[in-house]
Amino acid sequence: SDSLPIVVNTWPFVNATRNAFNKMQNQGGTCVDGVEVGCRTCEDEQCDGSVGWGGHPDESSETTLDSLIIDAKTMSVGAVANLHRIKNAVGVARAVMNYTRHSILVGESATKFALDMGFEQTDLHSNQSIEQWKNWLDNLSCQPNFRRNVSPDPSKSCGPYTPDKFGTTSFDIETKKRPIKEHD
Amino acid sequence: TIGMIALDSNGNLAAATSTNGLQFRIPGRVSDSALIGSGAFADNEVGGACATGDGDVMQRFVPSYNTVEAMRRGSSPEEAALDSIKRIAKFYPNFTGAVLALDRNGRHGAACNGMDKFPYSVMQNGWTDPQIFEIPCL
Fold first, then answer.
1. Over the stretch B101-111, which tens digit does the pLDDT of each residue have?
2. Chain A from 137 to 166: CB within 8 A of any B CB
3. Pairing mode, if any, of strands A6-10 and B2-7?
4. Which residue from A38, A56, A177 is facing B23, i.e. has the nearest CB?
5. What is the pLDDT of residues A148-166, one digit of tens each?
6. Interface list for B 102-121 with A (CB within 8 A)
7. How far apart are CA A9 and CA B108, in angstroms?
8. Is the ipTM of this structure higher than 0.95?
9. Rg for chain A (alpha carbons), in Å?
């Protein structure tokens, strides 16, 4: 096709698109190189706050990262999840693909793997993520959160939570509307 | 979250994702973006797909794999993505999410739910800059 190479990505993250395309078209990179560079661009730019360090803290204020990379020519895959203190998540995912026979590594063990592979350890908090978390904890009583069927009532209170001994276990299918920039 | 699919001049495909997840999640939670078939999937013989949105809901339906398989059966990228979105919306009508697909011929399409519209970015041979495509959601 005359349109090749081609890169598509979710959301209007055009620098990521451009860098991925240029990697393939002008720098002799493979399509795997292209998607790695594209995702790395967004990690560095913290695209809309949903990618990279310093955004979307968890209940304990920490930002952790998830990433996946797939080479469809060989069906090689690498992924990391709940990665702590490493900014270049897609780079670690590619290292999982290149240097292991596994598909996914998670948590602190993934961080240890990343350090062994030469990645730099760094704090992923930002001033903004700390402020967001403090506001959620102190002013919003930990609302919203992802707990259910626990005590104290998670729709009103912060934890620590324990299973609700007196309530029924419900599994409603309603999903809460979340801000447009808050997405996986 | 970013989900990306690339198709090179030799017809080879790759896909990748990267995210910092949902705000105030329970520590230890894993998003769909890290899961093959859910956050992304690709097959050189067919095409690739990637997903974005509420990962706790979306990963239950493995939408990227479903989209690629729908393209394998002859659906266009748009039709295939829509099939995946509809399967999720059947159980979770209010969920927020989108699926983006690219076939092995360079055709792309997307479908979404829970938003007014979903923008995605494209760059291909012969263009000087990426273009933003916006599609209306269900």
1. 999 999 999 99
2. 142, 144-147
3. antiparallel
4. A56
5. 999 999 999 999 999 987 7
6. 102, 105-106, 108, 114-115, 119-121
7. 10
8. yes
9. 19
